[in-house]
Structures are given as structure tokens and as C-alpha cells.
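User: Structure please.
Assistant: Input sequence and predicted structure:
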Amino acid sequence: MARTALTGRVADVEHRVDTIERRFDGLDAQISRFREEMHVALTATNGRVDDLRVEVLTALATTARELRQADEVLRREMHALHEESLAALAGTRLQVEQGDEDTRRYMRVLHEEVVERLKRIQSG
């Protein structure tokens, strides 16, 4: 009887070990599938990150080029405006100088008239 009980217990242990082995085999397969899925997902993610990096670098390069072009256009416009302002200032300066000359001439004429009138008043 002890032999039979021992054989039964051994059979029970063997059955349990077989069950555990099957479960481990199932877990091993699940872990392998999970690793493969993670590898595929990480590879796809790395590819997308690389794509995004290229997009960002391209966008930055485009933006930098556009800013340089806009800067050049702005510089040309500012230079043209500066030249226009200098020309307008020179024109204004000429007008003021001409006005000053006209005023001096008018003042001389008035002075000469006053002097002439004073001579007439004194001579009498």
C-alpha cells in the first residue's frame, strides 16, 4: 500500500510538473510573441521619429531660407526708403534755401524803399 500511495503521489507530481511545463511553454510563446510585437512597434516608432526629425529639419531649413529672403527684401526696401528720404530732404533744403534768398531779396527791396522814403522826407 505504501508503494501504491507512493506511485500515486509520484504520478500526481509528474502530472503537476507536466501541467507546469505546458503553462511555461505557453508563457514562453506569449513572451516571444510579445517581444516580436514590441520589436515591430519600436522599429515603427523609431522610423516615425526619424521621419519627423527629417520633416522638422526640412521645415527649419525652409524657414531659415525664407527668413533670409525676407530679410534681404526688407533691407532693399529700407535702403530705397532711405534714399527717397534723403532725396526729399535735399529737395526741402533747396526750397528752404530758395525761400531764404527770396526773403532776403524782399527785405533788401523794402529796406531800399524805406531809405528812399526817409531821404524824401528829409529833403522835403
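Residues 2-123 form the longest helix (122 residues).
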